[in-house]
Backbone:
C-alpha cells in the first residue's frame, strides 16, 4: 500500500480513492480467507462487501 497523504476513515471508499485495483482485491480476499477462516464466494466479491473498512467488518462478521 505504501505511503500516502490520504486519510483512511472507516467509511472511506477504497474505489473512490484508488486504493484497490483488481490485484489488490484478490490479495484482500486471500487475506480475509486466511486470517478469518472464511470462504469468499465469487458473487460476494463486490463493493458492498469490500469497499471500505466498515463494509469489510460487516461482511466478515456475517461470515463468522
Residues:
Amino acid at each position: 500500500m505504501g505511503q500516502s497523504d490520504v486519510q483512511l476513515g472507516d467509511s472511506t471508499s477504497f474505489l473512490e480513492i484508488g486504493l484497490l485495483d483488481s490485484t489488490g482485491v484478490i490479495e484482500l480476499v486471500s487475506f480475509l480467507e486466511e486470517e478469518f477462516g472464511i470462504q469468499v464466494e465469487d458473487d460476494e466479491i463486490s463493493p458492498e462487501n469490500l469497499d471500505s473498512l466498515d463494509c469489510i467488518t460487516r461482511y466478515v462478521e456475517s461470515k463468522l
In short: Residues 22-63 form one domain. The mean pLDDT is 91. The radius of gyration is 12 Å.
